[in-house]
Structures are given as structure tokens and as C-alpha cells.
Amino acid sequence: MKRLAIAAALLAGVLVQVTWAPRLTVAGVFPNLALVAVIAITWTSGVRHGMAWACVGGLMLDLTAPGPLGPHAVALLAGAYLTGFWARNLDRESVVYPLIAAAVSTAAYSVVLVGVDEMVALPVPPWSVALQLVIAACIYNALAMAVAMWVVRKVRAPVTRDHRELA
Amino acid sequence: MLVLAMLSEQSWAAGARGAAKGALAPLESAMTQASHSLDRVTSVLGDISALRAENQRLMAADLALRRQVIELDAAAKENASLRQALDFKRSFGHSMVAAQVVGRGPDGFSRTLEIDRGTVDGVRPGMVVATGAGLVGRVREAGPHGAIVQTLADPRSRVNVYLAKSGLQGTVTGGPNALHLDIEHSLGLKASSGEWALTSGVGGGYPRGLVVGELASVTYRPASTSDQALIAWVNEPTSLSLLLVITDFVAS
Known about the structure:
The structure holds two protein chains of two kinds. The longest helix of chain A has 40 residues, at 127-166. Chain A is built from six helices and no strands. Chain A has helices spanning 2-19, 33-45, 47-64, 71-89, 96-119, 127-166. In chain B, a hairpin with a 4-residue loop joins strand 4 (135-142) and strand 5 (147-151). Chain B has two domains: 28-152 and 238-246, Rod shape-determining protein MreC, domain 1 (Thrombin, subunit H), CATH 2.40.10.340; 158-234, Thrombin, subunit H. Chain B is built from four helices and twelve strands, in the order H-H-H-H-E-E-E-E-E-E-E-E-E-E-E-E. Helices cover 32% and strands 29% of the residues of chain B. In chain B, the strands form two sheets. In chain B, strands 1-2-5-4-3-12 form a six-stranded antiparallel β-barrel. A six-stranded antiparallel β-barrel of chain B has the order 6-7-8-11-10-9. At the A-B interface, helix 1, helix 3, helix 4, helix 5 and helix 6 of A face helix 1, helix 2, helix 3 and strand 1 of B.
């Protein structure tokens, strides 16, 4: 049931990302809700869960993008892995770390996405343009991450409290 | 995932890939319609708050009138857009299929649009896409009931153009904020702001004469072989809703 709910939320996030979110474009980028969701899952539930949902979310993104199926999934996997590595070694309750993790993971996601596109012989943007887009996306996704973490903590708060009471 | 990416890129997998991508199109279409409804609601709510501050007594009547105006305005805009498309279709002389935008690319690297027409409607990869205002881009992939259009704003798109006044030629590339134009130098000729850029037909990728945009600014580089310019695209990608796919032009 929980997995179904996460899958539905991820699908909704992807649909919002490709229909409504482009209206919020600033400096050529708009929030990558799938990436933000995967980072939030990884940060709160661990790297294994995060990477599994990265595959699912990435394939959903690939269905809306030109080119083969897989590049977005690989890019999201890199983002989730980096976030998981970060979360394992730092205080998960911190407010600032998830934002930095989102920015760093966005950079990793973008580099891997461009790299995979190049590998499967898809045209890639010039490096100067790509760099500009990556920097803007890092800032935007970090801000979106703040909202996402607030939502995730609100959703998880009753569950965590119940667990504590049972213990 | 990498293996999947490589396999799904193969030509024999194009059908299955197109069908899989078409599966999300109805959901995207529904979400697009929902967001349009939400826009109307937020617009009306904005009007309500303004009216409440202005005059409580007239609020109800004014709200009804404003809603009617918004609806009429939206209908008029749609009407104008359809008329423009129809005029363009008549005057352009090519065979076209009208398509609705149902989704957009998932990130800044791919400025693409998803449309609700596919191979069943005669849409094929490589076909040119336009609006009544001018060129939009090219169909990149097509499934049975949907297709993905690579717009000119995509950093990976390239279009050869000529300038209407000076006759200079150049290549337009996409960018995150504006279209960039590299103008080839020609003895005695100089590009100037306000000139219109149209497709030149060079390279056979696009038919000649489609409007791309207006030169917003030009940076002259005497020491280089080309000048650089920014183009104000005639189509605003975030507001595009109705597109025309030119079905009888084959890129060479």
C-alpha cells in the first residue's frame, strides 16, 4: 500500500513536472520534481529505497522525453546514490544538509544525463549552455527540496511518533 | 539501465518505445486540462480579492461580470489563434495536421513539447512543426497517438536562416533564455536590430520562408568570421497550445 502511494505520488510529480512546472521557468530551468522526490525518499528512507524509486521515477521521465528509455533513470540513480552516501555520514535531522545534497545531486544528475546522452549518440547542448543550466537547476532544486523535506517530515511525523510510543 | 537505453535506441525498438511513451500521453493531457482549469480558478480568485478590497457591495455582480469577461477573452484568444492557424494553413500551401500540446520536456536540457497527434494521424519523425506565427521545431519521435517535438528553444536545435532586410545568412541555435544567431559576414552588409529572421531552406531541414523571430540585439565582431545576435522568438514556448505539423515536407 505504501509502495503504491509512493508510486502514485511519483507519477503525479512527473506529470506536474512536464505539464505545469515549466510555467515556473527561471533562467531556463524549472523544478525537477522527480529528482527532488527521489532525494527526499533517499534522505528519509535510505539509499536502497532511494535507488529503487530512482529507477521508477527515471523511467517515467524517460517516457516523456525524446530518445531511448534509460538516461533519466541512470541520472536519477547517480543522484540517489550521492544523496545516500551523504545521508549515511551526516545528521539526517539537519535542515541545511538536504538542501546541499539536492544541489550536489542535481549537478551529478545533470552531468550523468549529458554523459549518457553523448554515449547513446544523442545531441547534447554546448558546455557553456549546459553549465549555465546546471547551476540554475542546482539552486532551484535546492529551494524545492526545502519544501519537499517540510512535506515529507509532516507526513512521516505521525508514523515516527507511533513508533516511538510503541518502543 | 544503460543496456535498456542502448537497446531502446535501436530502430527495431522504435515502435515499442513509441507505444510506451504514448501510454503517458492521456494522463499528461488530463493534467494539462486540470492546470488550465486551475489557472482559471486562480484568476477568478485573484479578481475576488481585488474586488473585496475595492467594494464589498459590488463584489458579487462584478465577479460574475469579470468571469464572463475572462471566459469571453479566453474564447476570443482561442478563436484568434484558430483563425491565424487557418489563415496560415491556407496561405502556406502545405498539408498540415493540427495538434494540441499535452506536455513538455522533463528538464532544461530538452526543450520539447508532447502533442496529441501521432503516426495514426500521419505524423512522422522529422516533420516540421509551426504555428500561425512561425516556426516551432521538428517532430523528434512519434508514437501511435502522440509525438515529441523538439522546439527551437532546445539547446540542441539548429536552423539555417536569412535576414529579411540585409539578406545575410546564419544559423540559429537554441538557448535557455533566447535564441542565438551566428550571422556570417558578407562584404558591405550589416545586420541590425529589428530585422526578421526566416528559414533559408539551406541544408533541406526546413522549408524556406518560415518566420523564426526578430533580431533583439546584435554583437558585431569584426575580428571574427561571424557576428552574434539574440533573436526574440515569435513563439513563446510556455504559452504554446495549438501546433500545426507540416505533413508533406520531407527533410532532405
